[in-house]
Write a structure and sequence with these properties.
This protein is mainly alpha-helical and 130 residues long. It contains 6 helices and 2 strands. It has helices spanning 3-9, 15-22, 26-34, 52-66, 71-93, 97-111; strands at residues 41-43, 47-49. The protein is elongated. The two termini are 17 Å apart. It binds a DNA duplex (9 and 8 nucleotides) through residues 14-16, 25-28, 30-31, 44-48. It holds the Pfam family MerR_1. Keywords: DNA-binding, Repressor, Transcription, Transcription regulation. Residues 111-130 are annotated as: Disordered.
Length: 130
DNA sequence: CTTCTAACA
DNA sequence: TGTTAGTA
């Protein structure tokens, strides 16, 4: 269900290939990395290895540059998106007061033997959908 | 031959 | 950003 995302994240492209795919110079690609806009992996003898996701990101960076943004500005955009996705992760694992109330209530019924664990229909989900 | 880091007539 | 030097 996500084999494609996995392959998009596989870092196997040398900088030379990325140059052709993005029309950027090696200098620029390395510079953007120094500005923390991309994080290619390293391998072999300290050589940079890029993923297709990295290539897309570089293409995206080029667009932002055309829109007049500087390195710091682009980084803020990505930092912002990263913070938003982190909040979503926490949100999924945070139970609302109502959820806690329901869980406690269900456990109480089970402990009292007034209800069979098999006939559990209105069980509170452990986590909410996105 | 390709890539890397560091540096600048 | 370009470019070059000296490596790995």
């Amino acid at each position: 269900m996500r084999g494609k995302e996995l392959r998009r994240s596989l870092s196997v492209l040398p900088i030379g290939t990325v140059m052709k795919l993005t029309s950027l110079t090696a200098r620029q690609i390395r510079y953007y990395e120094s500005q923390k806009l991309i994080f290619p992996q390293r391998s072999d003898g300290n050589r940079r290895l890029y993923s297709l996701a990295d290539v897309d990101r570089l293409l995206e960076i080029k667009d932002y540059l055309d829109d007049g943004l500087n390195m710091a500005g682009i980084r803020e955009v990505y930092d912002q998106k990263q913070r938003e996705s982190e909040q979503r992760k926490n949100q999924d694992h945070q139970l609302t007061d109502d959820d806690v109330r329901k869980i406690l209530h269900d456990e109480f019924l089970q402990a009292g033997g007034l209800k069979t664990p098999s006939a559990q229909q209105p069980q509170a989900p452990l986590q909410k959908p996105l």
